[in-house]
Design brief:
Layout (H helix, E strand, L loop, with lengths): L1 H28 L3 E2 L2 H4 L15 E2 L4 H8 L8 E4 L6 H7 L4 H12 L4 H6 L6 E5 L8 E4 L5 E7 L5 E7 L2 E11 L4 H7 L4 H11 L5 H4 L5 E11 L4 E5 L4 E6 L2 E7 L9 E2 L19 E4 L2 E4 L6 E4 L2 E4 L5 E3 L4 E8 L5 E6 L4 E8 L1 E2 L8 E2 L4 E4 L10 E8 L2 E3 L17 H39 L1
Parallel strand pairs: 1-8, 2-7
Antiparallel strand pairs: 3-4, 4-5, 5-6, 6-7, 8-9, 9-10, 9-11, 11-12, 12-13, 14-17, 15-16, 17-25, 18-24, 19-20, 19-23, 20-21, 21-25, 22-24, 25-26
Helix pairs in contact: 4-5, 7-8
Bound molecules: zinc ion (ZN).
The site of zinc ion (ZN) has 5 residues, from loops.
């Protein structure tokens, strides 16, 4: 008898698991194939995804939440933000709540799971939506305390306060963005609506293979596939995943990069044949810059006489991010005479790179610290002996400067031979995903045209 019950509950448990899995699969496969985010801004469907946590779904306004939970009606919703050195109590006092209501609101939050912790970790600048209590209307607040969670507090008709955490609905969306390069890759990609961290990722990825200064021409084009997480209430991107695919077409010469996770789950990039796109040192550790002075003899702009220039100068606006040209260890970071603010990285036994005249150095870039290729280490400036904002970049081989443009750089690791079949299948999967995304852009365009035609017919 006992065993039968156990079997029965195991059976039920299995059914629930299968259902959950089915829901998850449906949710995943309903990821919209969208086009660029900016174009898509008005057309993102407000879908109701399934919450896998026990939290219920948030609402965009307190008014809507009150309707959902059946609280005391509110009429006038206002907004403020949490100021520096403010607690929730002092903020509520500032926006006109009396002590009695404040105490009840704080108590209501204390009663929810993790409530005490929430009250002590509210971030400065957090948006507080609120409605002041009166005889006829309810007091209520909404704290947007993390990117994904809201805390609501509201009154019932007996003027008791209740609080609960709600999960803001989000959606993962695959996106393809295509663009033509007008001036620089950075500017053109930004114009196409690529989120900034995805853009920086793309630049540092391409920087392994492309000399942005010499190889990119006006009219060259790029395409990129990435996944973003969207807050459906605010319609903003709250997170992006590592780039799935980037392609760059340089005067007909196509470079493809496919993301293929390694055994640690970290993104690694290879071309269609499984060759690594990583080089030990990037040729151009900066983007959007103009090579203003090459390697070799030149008349020194400040000293006046001819002097050997043992590096490359990239002219760029002050504040432009400078990347670590390769994985390595920081050997020097700080002021270095006429070099001004200066960073030197030791990459291998043979190679080092140096970056001079910086306006700033990233806080955790200190001597002995390990850095990864493509990570921002500092910013372009004009410190030391310099006539204007530029990056002075040196590559050192056995502690002697060499011309970065002339050195042959050893490549990174390729896809292991016994994984190559799996890799090729993976590439095919990404390419069919790309076709599907392109089709959805086409369909979207047709639908938009038809709609526009209908609207103009009506007019
Ligand atoms: Zn220089």
């Amino acid at each position: 008898m006992k065993k039968a019950i156990n079997n029965n509950s195991l059976h039920k448990f299995l059914i629930v698991m299968v259902l959950l899995f089915a829901c998850f699969t449906i949710f995943n496969s309903s990821i919209a194939f969208s086009k660029s985010y900016l174009d898509n801004q008005q057309s993102i469907p407000i879908k109701r995804p399934i919450n896998f946590l026990s939290l219920e779904e948030s609402a965009d306004t307190i008014f809507n939440m009150i309707q959902k939970v059946g609280g005391k009606l509110i009429v006038n919703e206002k907004r403020t933000t949490l100021k520096k050195n403010e607690t929730l109590s002092s903020a509520l006092k500032r926006i006109g709540f009396d002590n009695n209501n404040i105490n009840k609101i704080i108590q209501a939050i204390r009663n929810i799971y993790n409530g005490k912790k929430i009250l002590t970790t509210l971030p400065i600048g957090m948006i507080i939506d609120y409605s002041n209590p009166s005889k006829l209307t309810g007091g209520a607040i909404k704290l947007s305390y993390t990117k994904t969670n809201d805390v609501f507090v509201w009154q019932d008709i007996n003027n008791n306060y209740f609080s609960q955490i709600y999960l803001r609905p989000t959606k993962l969306e695959n996106t393809i963005v295509k663009g033509k390069i007008q001036s620089s890759l950075y500017v053109s990609a930004l114009k196409e609506g690529i989120p900034e961290n995805t853009l920086l990722e793309m630049i540092s990825l391409l920087g392994f293979s492309v000399d942005f200064q010499r190889e990119i021409r006006k009219g060259d084009n790029f395409e990129i596939i990435f996944t973003k997480k969207i807050d459906l209430l605010k319609n903003v991107i709250i997170e992006t995943k590592p780039i799935t695919y980037v392609s760059l077409n340089l005067s007909g010469n196509k470079l493809n990069f496919f993301n293929y996770e390694d055994k640690y789950g970290l993104p690694q990039y290879y071309d269609e044949n499984g060759r690594s796109t990583k080089r030990t040192i990037m040729k151009t550790p900066i983007n959007g810059a103009r090579l203003s002075s090459g390697y070799g003899n030149r008349k020194h702009p400040i000293l006046g006489y001819t002097k050997m220039h043992r590096g490359l100068d990239f002219a760029a606006p002050s504040g432009t991010p400078v990347f670590a040209a390769g994985d390595g260890v920081i050997e020097k970071a700080g002021w270095n005479g006429s070099y001004g603010r200066y960073i030197r990285i030791r990459h291998t036994g043979t190679y080092k790179t140096a970056y001079a005249h910086l306006s700033g150095i990233i806080k955790n870039i200190r001597v002995g610290k390990r850095v990864l290729q493509g990570k921002t280490i500092g910013f372009v400036g004009s410190s030391g002996r310099s006539t204007g904002p530029h990056l002075h970049y040196e590559v050192l081989r056995n502690n002697k400067q060499v011309n970065p443009m002339n050195i042959k750089l050893p490549a990174g690791k390729n896809v292991p031979k016994n994984n190559i079949l799996d890799y090729k299948r993976h590439v095919q999967k990404i390419l069919s995903q790309k076709t599907a995304l392109e089709k959805s852009i086409q369909n979207h365009k047709i639908a938009t045209n038809e709609l526009n035609n209908k609207v103009s017919e009506l007019n």
